[in-house]
């Protein structure tokens, strides 16, 4: 994998993980978290987020896994 693709993949994962932590910590509601992710500038397609449904699913599992 190219260094550039790897960089953007890592950045997208870190971004979603950060949002999941904020949702779990109560700083954001689930809906606010989804909106933050969907309105971001990240390369979300690299981590399997293509639309709002996949975003909600990804955030749900990220929040559940961090419990």
Please characterize this protein's 3D structure.
The structure is a single chain. This protein is mostly helical and 67 residues long. It has one domain (3-65). The protein is 67% helix and 0% strand. The protein has three helices and no strands. It has helices at residues 3-24, 30-38, 52-65. The chain is globular, with a radius of gyration of 12 Å.
Q: Topology, pairings included?
A:
Layout: H1 3-24, H2 30-38, H3 52-65
Helix pairs in contact: 1-2, 1-3, 2-3
Question: What structural category characterises the helix and strand content?
Answer: mainly alpha
Order of helices and strands: HHH
The unreliable regions are none
- Please count the helical segments: 3
Summarize model confidence as the mean pLDDT. 92
Work out the number of β strands: 0
Categorize the overall geometry. globular
How much of the residues is beta strand, in percent?
under 5%
Helix content: 55-70%
Q: How would you sum up the major sheet?
A: none
**Whole-number radius of gyration?**
12 Å
- Oligomeric status of the shown chains? single chain
What is the straight-line distance between the termini? 32 Å
Domain count: the total is 1
What is the gist of this entry?
The chain has 67 residues and is mostly helical. The chain has three helices and no strands. The longest helix has 22 residues.
Name its key features.
3 helices, mainly alpha, 67 residues
């Amino acid at each position: 994998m190219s260094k550039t693709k790897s960089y953007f993949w890592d950045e997208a994962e870190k971004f979603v993980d950060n949002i999941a932590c904020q949702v779990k910590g109560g700083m954001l509601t689930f809906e606010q978290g989804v909106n933050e992710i969907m309105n971001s500038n990240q390369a979300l397609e690299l981590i399997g987020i293509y639309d709002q449904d996949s975003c909600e699913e990804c955030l749900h599992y990220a929040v559940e896994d961090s419990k």
